[in-house]
Amino acid sequence: MIALFLCRLLVPTEATEQGLTLWLCAATFALAAVVFFGSFKFQSVISYRPALPDLAIGLMVLGHLVSGLHVLAGSGNGRSALNMMWEWLAIGVFWILMRLLVVRKESQQLLTNTFIVTVLGLSLLGLWQHYYWYPQQASKFEQLLEYTEQTAANEALSQDAKNEYKELVSQFGTDVLTLDTPGRMSFLARVKASVEPIGLFVLANTFALFLLVALLFVTFDFFNRANQLSLQTRVSMGLIATILLFCLILTKSRTAWAGTITGLSTYFVLHWILARSRIRISIRYLMVAISVAGGLILWGMLTGGLDPQVISEAPKSLQYRLEYWSSSLELLQDHPIFGAGPGNFRQHYLRYKLPGSSEEILDPHNLFLGIWSGGGLLALLGLCLLIISSVAKGIQNFQDNDEASVPPSHSALVLKQAALLIILGYAFTIASVFLLEGHLDQRLILMGSITASFSVVLNKLGVQFFMRRPVALAAFVATVVHLSGASGIEMPAVVLVILVLAHSITFSEIQTGKEIQLSEKSLLSASLMSLGLLVGSLLTGLIPVQLAQTDINIGKSMLLVRGNPQLAKRYFLSASEADSLSPEPQQQLALFYFQNWRNSGSRDDSEFEQAVSHLQDAIKLDPFAAGRYRSLGNLWDAKAEQSEDEADAIKAVDAYQDAALLYPNFAELQAELAMAQQRANQPATEAAKTALDLDELNHQYGHTDKFLSEDVRKRLKQMLR
Predict the structure, then answer these.
(1) Which residues are CB-neighbours of 595 under 8 A, at least 6 positions away?
(2) pTM to 2 decimals?
(3) What is the largest CA-CA distance in the chain?
(4) Which alpha helices (DSSP H) does 442-564 contain, by range?
(5) What is the pLDDT of residues 6-58, one digit of tens each?
(6) CA distances from 719 to 26, 52, 467, 667, 716 (A)
(7) Rounded to whole angstroms, how far apart are CA atoms 51 and 42?
(8) How far apart are CA 213 and CA 576, in angstroms?
(9) Please, which residues have CB within 8 angstroms of residue 429's CB and are 6 or more apart in sequence?
């Protein structure tokens, strides 16, 4: 179970709704089936004591299932919803396993140690990314742009250049090739400006959450036991805290910084108000800690890791979040019971996005609005209950002077066990990636070796990490503060960290309350149910998603790199057959037939009709995605331009109007609508004025990626004369 938890830290949890982590769901269900059947077979006694967090997690999972079924009934993207439903079921099963298996101090400490050492390894990766990987990526992307421009200009490439070009396309993806020149320049600017450590995630804010939790664990453990530790142990723990802190600083995650400060303050304030014992902190260590933190901040500023804008633009960042929250609340007012549905926030959000707002966000950047949007009112109620019950229990621990939770110095736990679990977690991740994607991730192999070695070295130095329940409360509060302004509550890895903290707060070997012992019949039923979940997740989740994504990727490569359209078509058709819920294969087929139509000199209308048909099928599978209606408008627009038939132009207008209803505050879309209306001899002044007004707002707020071209602006202004 701990190894599976570590696997969540080794894959991009942000890709959950695309189904890229469904293999971890299947592994969780398989583990549950084995645990329950093993207990039934060998007549092991499994018991637990019900607690409020059980009800809270149950409501969160149930809310996502109910909202997901609502989406599957026709109110959104069914593939994203189903992927998220399996993820939340896996989260619920993980909670059950943790409640049943992590019942002794040794297992609790083992979980703590493996988590801290794994995050330590990821923090070193983050520092490497900051100082080496990002500059290297910028250089490679510049080379990719150069090759792309040479290819577009029909310039001959040497064989070595062709091989390097294919390798770069494989690394950055074929989507880059579809961008226009301004889009490529904008992407390059983002690559050069991005220097924040991300670990093995996609977003620095996500990585920052794990860093702050590990940092609080190590910091409080050090201060609580400093007088009992040897010099080499104190030095080792201080070095570990320094690495974690520096990596956290470099993420530039203001919400994580605020969470860390809040977590520290929570511990000391509650200890001062509620605990019966005095806070035993050496002034010497405190001054060293403050000096080190100040030195790291100064070093980050001098080396370019931090810039004044991190602080000066904090008000602007808060303003953006207020815009996100305001629009999200409007969305939820229209969908109060079920929310937007799991994995369907963005499609609905664009309808409510404010005119001057910057990003087309994937979630509300707030844990309460995020959980409400994904799982409806039931999930929101569950989250509130989890927070209230965990904080209340944590405060009670302070009042009870939780010294009993400090493990004895002769604890049998050693980091050698953690090393074995880290090896298992990395090995399982590497093997799964190899089976699903067909390549060995050398980065994971290296990271696994380094992280496991850390465990062995720390064990030889006598370094172990112990966590008191009040420390878990401080980390829990820090996490809630961070997620109040950041993405993550719909990401499984983030949710599992919250659950681990909640369990740590309520954990005690000396428990009170009614104990329920699972009967043999219950164990067998639980095993069969877990097996059913495993089969279901494979047949409706992992297998179709993986087959479709593999076929789409191969098809894109065949089309854009190898220039073999017929083979590309075969793979796109195979993808549509493999996953009938996903709109992506239909979208790719539409683009394929449209390109064929254009390549034929716009003479073969059957190719165009096929393109329209497949795009309409994609729209049916994702009915609230404005981009798909816009693509349909682009198709009819191209047809009208070629045929000069007013009927084709009217169809383009209809598609653009459907898109504009779902995304009204998009300047480029309004401009396309206005030009299509002009071609169809319809009044275009309203759309033209809206487009120009939105473009002015984009210039005012500096949203360079949304600026209209000067040519388009001139055409729109002519319509208003």
Answers:
(1) 565
(2) 0.92
(3) 85
(4) 442-460, 469-483, 492-506, 520-537, 543-560
(5) 999 999 999 899 999 999 999 999 999 999 999 988 877 787 788 899 999 99
(6) 57, 63, 68, 15, 5
(7) 27
(8) 42
(9) 7, 10, 11, 441, 444
